[in-house]
Amino acid sequence: MLLGGALAAIASSPLKSFGRKGRRKPPAYGDPAPGTPQAFRDLIEQHKFTHELGTDSGTGISPDTGVPPLVSSDQSFSVFTKPEHVMHAKSSSSLSPLPGVDNAKDFDDRDVYHGIAPEYDVGGDHKNARGESLFPAGSWPEEKHVEMRVVDHVTEIIKGVATPCFAYLVGNQPSFPGPTYLVEAGEALVVRTINDLHDVEISTHQHGGCLPSHADGYPDFWCLPGKVRDYFYPNVVHRELLSDGSEGGQFDESYWQSTMWYHDHSMDITGFTVAQGLAGYYLQVDSLERGLMESGVLPNIFENEYGIHDIPLAIQDTRLNEDGSIHYDFLDHAGRLGDIFMVNGKASPRLTVQPRKYRFRILNGSNARVYMLRLSDRSSFLQIGKDSYLLPSAFGLDEVMMTSGERADLIVDFSKYSEGEEIYLENWMEQTDGRGPDGVGRKAQQQLIKFVVEGSAQGNISVADGTKLRPHVGVLASGIPIAGEFEWKTDRKNGAWTINGELFNPLRSDVAPVLGTAQRWFVENKSGGWWHPMHTHLTGSEINKRPRGDDLPSVKERERFDAVGPHKVDMISLANNTRREINVRLQTFDGPFVLHCHTVEHEDMRMMAVMDVRTPGTDRHDMDGEEHIPSEISGMPEDFHADGYFEHFGDVGRLIGRGVGFDHLK
Ligand SMILES: [Cu+2]
């Protein structure tokens, strides 16, 4: 299956201004159907806010009716909706054949067909392309192994409606969305991924991770149907530079990530696979955050607080067909909007809470929707993290905007409420198509999840406005030179979105920074009325300067900067006609990596660029736009391109030659 971007039309639409009225609707093509059938809407209404997260209220139609996906006592992974179990991977040597063994190809075709990253060294000292160990001396981790299948599944988004979907399966219980990983910083993990889908190639990206290119979900480093790929997650971050410029010091603690997520990133079809359910959380805890947990500042995830007082809430909009299946329109390139709002895969659920503080790790896992989240009584809450990173300090706010792919790590205090009180998390952002939101207003008001306060508080946490969390170390302060400046300009050309005038070509390098340097980037969106939330793989983006109000989709971002100072993010949301400045540190792993728009349908329309971080003197590959990346790095077998699996390989040549879309619609 190689659908989507290259083969279909794209809306050509007038400019649009955020918050302005009276703009013309874009021409409608794709599926003009009225949306999720009324019968299903009636069912949602009937069961509204009755599905308690963390319990099973299924009817038996769906296999995921509440048994947590436990394989064995030392490999327990948790699903969002049944989150009693904190999950630890198996210790090493649970996989057969072992990851990275030389004779892997002699095993059955299903075994490790795509190999493992060259940075993975069996029984040795994992090193990057520059020969630097990924781990400081003496911190060699105990390696963990996990086997994860990607399978067809049936879930129950609406009570009583069986919905076919895709799911990640760890153990014996598939879950929609996927199971939550919990790793400790510096604890290397190999996830053996088996693609049991029929005719759908996948490529798993760990969003926020600092990973070898082979394991990063590069869009055409696939795990093919029926095949296996070993994803090597060393769970490292950039290390401090020694005086000779090599990466040899301790980990830079300011880069440790907390709330990451993983999702499919397969070229041209990511919008489809994510809508089908291929997304989940990937949580990491380092010693600093563990200290905050053990001293009672934050809930202690290692003391069974996961799913109790530390709860991931993934917000996604979706739409169902008449047969209960998930609607996806490959012709809607503006960006998929749904008319059903899910939290953790369930339409309009509820969560019973105690009168105390909770940590909610909120993910906007929607393909194209922008949210403005508020509590129904307009109470304020704390933000402790943005995207993968804990902020330097907690700060109070009463609404938070989230574009696709962003995370907001929030603390909500229910202690002021009395028994039985009901509070909703609401969306106030109006949006009618995938180009971007129209503005904030009551017309858009949508209750997403109901919190019901019950019982007495079991313990509490002390985090408050101003509590110090993760100190920020500036890119410049880290001693790494800013080796250059680079501009990324998004635009719309020939009916498609481009970055610096180009469509994504997985074989072409768009910027090739030297490993061990930093760059100052200017990211600019001049593409008329379109919004583009931009995401860069490999490393965090440092917001070093107080942003101009005109350059922000929400002035709350400047309030955040004023409150916490420079900090790291992994998403930069570009409203129309805005420009942002960031610093990025390009360390640890050689490329290729992508940066792209996280409105997933724009990404599928090739709104991606390639950052090929390179170690001088190495000859890993030549990204001239034509030559294939060597098998060792891509994991694609040497004979792959010769055997005709994809005759036209994503139609790259065709795209470059004539642009995207049907000519008569341009
Ligand atoms: Cu975009």
Brief account:
The protein is mainly β and 666 residues long. It has 7 helices and 38 strands.
Layout of helices and strands, plus pairs?
Elements: H1 38-46, E1 70-72, E2 75-76, E3 90-91, E4 144-155, E5 163-170, E6 173-175, E7 181-184, E8 189-195, E9 204-207, E10 228-233, E11 239-241, E12 247-251, E13 259-264, H2 270-275, E14 279-285, H3 287-294, E15 310-318, E16 340-343, E17 346-347, E18 350-353, E19 357-364, E20 371-375, E21 381-386, E22 389-397, E23 400-402, E24 407-413, E25 422-427, E26 429-430, E27 439-440, E28 446-453, E29 482-493, E30 496-499, E31 517-525, E32 532-536, E33 541-543, H4 556-564, E34 567-569, E35 571-574, E36 578-586, E37 593-597, H5 600-604, E38 608-611, H6 631-634, H7 652-658
Parallel strand pairs: 4-8, 7-14, 15-19, 18-28, 29-31
Antiparallel strand pairs: 1-2, 3-4, 4-5, 5-6, 8-10, 9-13, 11-12, 13-14, 15-16, 16-17, 19-24, 20-23, 20-25, 21-22, 21-24, 25-28, 26-27, 29-30, 31-36, 32-35, 32-37, 33-34, 33-36, 37-38
The site of copper (II) ion has 7 residues, from loops.
CATH superfamily of the largest domain: Cupredoxins -  blue copper proteins
User: Can you summarize the main beta sheet?
Assistant: 7 strands, mixed
Helix content: under 10%
Which band does the percent of strand residues land in? 25-35%
E-strand count:
38
- Output the strand order for the largest sheet: 17-16-15-19-24-21-22
The number of helical elements comes to 7
Oligomer, anyone?
A: single chain
Bulk shape: globular
Architecture of the largest domain in CATH?
A: Sandwich
Name the CATH class of the largest domain: Mainly Beta
- Rounded Rg: 23 Å
Distance between the termini: 26 Å
Mean pLDDT metric: 83
- Poorly predicted spans: 1-28, 56-88, 647-666
Q: What is the CATH topology descriptor of the largest domain?
A: Immunoglobulin-like
Structural class: mainly beta
